Amino acid sequence: MADIRMTRYPAEVLGQKARAVGEVTDEIRELGAAMIDMMIEQKGVGLAGPQVGVDLRIFVFSHDATRENAKVYINPEIEISGGLEACHEGCLSLPGIEAKIKRYKKCTITATGLDGNRFIAEAEGIEIRGFQHEIDHLDGMLIKDRMGQAQRIGARKILRQLQEDHENE
Question: Does residue 1 belong to any structural domain of this protein?
């Protein structure tokens, strides 16, 4: 099984654009399985490669945080539409921070699965927000980068503490 661990802000990998996955190998399948395990262990609904220190374009998602509904998305491409809607979000890589983030109301994902085949996923409900959030991670963006100025000011103390914790590791 892939040896992964949670990566928290301000780890460098979180601010970089992730690389495309080449072939879907046994190692990629193991990574996907390990990411699902980690997502469930952390009580999240989504987890992206950079959040476990892997700079690859892969994320896992389960609308209800269960293994039964978890799916792996490799090299995802997103098509967004509809208007914007603001809603509260948290992030496993930014523990203690919750922010009201604007996201598009509709999206479609085209990705590769663990079987190596491309598939299309129409998003509904929490999936719409989750897909956009995880793809942000693959593009080196965190919710702190989407916060308004007042929210950023409110999060400064937590961000400083995360920075200090990282420096002391």
Answer: no
Tokens 């995360």 label which residue?
Answer: 162
Q: Are 31 and 18 in contact (CB under 8 A)?
A: no
- How far out from the chain centre does Cα 132 lie? 8
Asked if residue 157 is part of any domain, the answer here is yes
For residue range 49-97, list pLDDT tens digits in order: 999 999 999 999 999 999 999 999 999 999 998 899 999 999 999 999 9
Q: Check 41, 89, 127, 134 and give the catalytic one.
A: 134
In a domain, 30, yes or no: yes
The residue type found at 79 is E
CA distance 85 to 100: 10
Count of domains forming the chain: 1
User: Is residue 134 annotated as part of the catalytic site, yes or no?
Assistant: yes
The whole-model pTM stands at: 0.94
- What CATH number is associated with residue 17? 3.90.45.10
Domain residues for 33?
Answer: 12-167
Instruction: Please name the residues in contact with 72: beta carbons below 8 A apart, sequence gap of 6 or more.
Output: 32, 35, 36, 58, 59, 60, 113, 114
7 within a domain of the structure (yes/no)? no
